[in-house]
């Protein structure tokens, strides 16, 4: 029962944080992310770790939906304007990761 309570509470808080930020002109997804960071076990430990372990599949699914929403909000027309910068960033990150792993 506690697990369902915490999940419901976090969903409601995230929803209202998203609405609040949307009114300020910031994407709702940022509200969801901020809520997740604030209530993570690495910041203020509002949610007990045993609940996080038992809800791990749900958390992974929610993160997948967040990533899907972020990807869906990208506009190809805007990305084309930053083609050179994106290529440079991708090359730098790929090479840096390769060098650090080797």
Automatic annotation (TrEMBL):
State its location(s): Membrane
- Which GO molecular-function terms appear in the entry? antiporter activity
Instruction: Give TM regions.
Output: 6-22, 29-44, 56-74
Cation/H+ exchanger transmembrane domain sequence ranges: 12-100
A GO cellular component annotated for this chain's UniProt record is: membrane
GO-annotated biological processes? proton transmembrane transport
Sorted alphabetically, the keyword list is: Membrane, Transmembrane, Transmembrane helix
* The keyword Endoplasmic reticulum appears for this protein: no
Does the UniProt entry include the keyword Transmembrane? yes
Per the record, membrane topology reads: Multi-pass membrane protein
Which InterPro entries does this UniProt record tie to the protein?
Cation/H_exchanger_TM, Na+/solute_symporter_sf
Q: Chief location of this protein?
A: membrane
PANTHER family, sorted: CATION_H+ EXCHANGER DOMAIN-CONTAINING PROTEIN, NA(+)/H(+) ANTIPORTER-RELATED
Name this polypeptide is given: Cation/H+ exchanger transmembrane domain-containing protein
